[in-house]
Design a protein that fits this description.
The chain has 207 residues and is mostly helical. It has nine helices and no strands. Keywords: Membrane, Transmembrane, Transmembrane helix.
């Protein structure tokens, strides 16, 4: 856990800040900012391959990463790049919200992916997670995903308004801290729901 946090700090905060801080004069704001996203991109791909998360949760991370990268590359300048990231964050929030409205909460899908990685069959998992009292908690937890996406995007928008592109270094730190806070709340939510579910006689996935 401590190693994971340290690596997150290195690849998502320290290296991007270093690249931005020492590269913006030589490369310009846009290219320095674009280059600062490379360590996080490579680290995310590495973790995806290492943990072999070939499921909805893992694929959504990688698809989101490539979408974010594509938007960054298509942005005309550093400020547009930041604002496009804000809009993308709101878009994620809308997707989570829609999954609640259509009663297909993504938090339930993510939880099912995690449990299936432990060797349990989805035929056992989904009926248990879809029980009325458990399902309601997954709806609420997905609502926390919505709040997180909207809050993070609004925070970034406020930081852009307040400090402009020059505040990008501090923005990295603020966004990561707030992201960790929401990650902690969401993780606690999954553990809370997990404490209310008992999987009887789990069926192992047949190879």
């Amino acid at each position: 856990m401590k190693k994971s946090i340290l690596l997150d700090i290195i690849f998502y905060v320290a290296l991007p800040y270093f690249i931005w801080n020492y590269g913006k004069d030589a490369l310009g704001d846009y290219y320095a900012m674009l280059l600062s996203t490379v360590p996080g991109f490579c680290y995310t791909i590495y973790r995806f391959a290492k943990e072999r998360q070939f499921n909805i949760a893992g694929l959504s991370i990688v698809l989101g990463l490539f979408l974010s990268t594509a938007i960054n590359l298509l942005s005309k300048n550093a400020e547009s790049m930041l604002w496009n990231q804000v809009y993308l964050g709101y878009g994620y929030g809308v997707i989570y919200l829609v999954s609640i409205v259509i009663r297909k909460p993504l938090a339930l899908r993510f939880a099912a992916d995690f449990v299936s990685l432990q060797g349990y069959s989805r035929e056992t998992i989904y009926p248990l997670f879809s029980q009325k009292n458990i399902f309601a908690w997954f709806q609420l937890l997905t609502g926390l995903f919505v709040v997180s996406s909207f809050f993070q995007s609004s925070l970034k928008a406020w930081l852009i308004y307040s400090n402009g592109v020059d505040g990008y270094g501090e923005m990295l730190l603020y966004m990561k801290i707030s992201g960790w806070l929401f990650y902690g709340f969401i993780l606690a939510g999954f553990f809370f729901i997990g404490s209310k579910v008992t999987i009887p006689n789990p069926q192992k996935i047949e190879e």
